[in-house]
Specification:
It comes from Syntrophomonas wolfei. This is Type II secretion system protein. It is a single chain. This protein is of the alpha+beta class. It is 39% helix and 29% strand. The chain has one domain (2-120). The protein has one helix at 2-50, and strands at residues 58-61, 81-88, 95-106, 109-120. It has a 4-stranded antiparallel β-sheet with strand order 1-2-3-4, with helices on one face. The radius of gyration is 23 Å and the shape is rod-shaped. The relative contact order is 0.16.
């Protein structure tokens, strides 16, 4: 009887440990994709700040088409897609609203990250 009780307690503790580690693994994987996407989007915005001549009105263009992303050294995980949306804000054609949108599938659900900023064309920085 005591051996059976010890086996039941061991089984319960083992199942609890597996549940805790499984949840932690899912959180770590989610964090990996989200932090990689954030870093990639921020690097695209920094590249636009360094090269303001590449700013133009486009709607959801891929970074490669605009000549962006060459300075990004880490490998982008498969399945992450990026789009850049730039639109004029003022009539002088110098102030642009820039949105970098990244999306990927994780756990059967579509995840999305969007970074938004304003930049002036023809000047470095804001």
């Amino acid at each position: 009887m005591e051996v059976l009780l010890a086996l039941v307690i061991f089984t319960i503790i083992s199942n609890m440990a597996l549940a805790i580690f499984s949840t932690a693994t899912i959180w770590i994987k989610h964090s990996r994709y989200e932090s990689t996407a954030t870093y990639y989007a921020a690097s695209l915005l920094e590249e636009l700040r360094e090269k303001p001549e590449k700013i133009k009105s486009v709607s959801m263009a891929e970074p490669e088409i605009l000549g962006l992303g060459e300075g990004y050294t880490p490998a982008i995980p498969p399945g992450i897609s990026a789009g850049i949306d730039m639109e004029k804000v003022d009539a002088l054609d110098r102030l642009y609203r820039i949105r970098v949108t990244l999306s990927w599938y994780e756990g059967g659900q579509k995840q999305k990250l969007c970074l938004l900023t304003m930049m002036r064309k023809g000047e470095s920085g804001l």
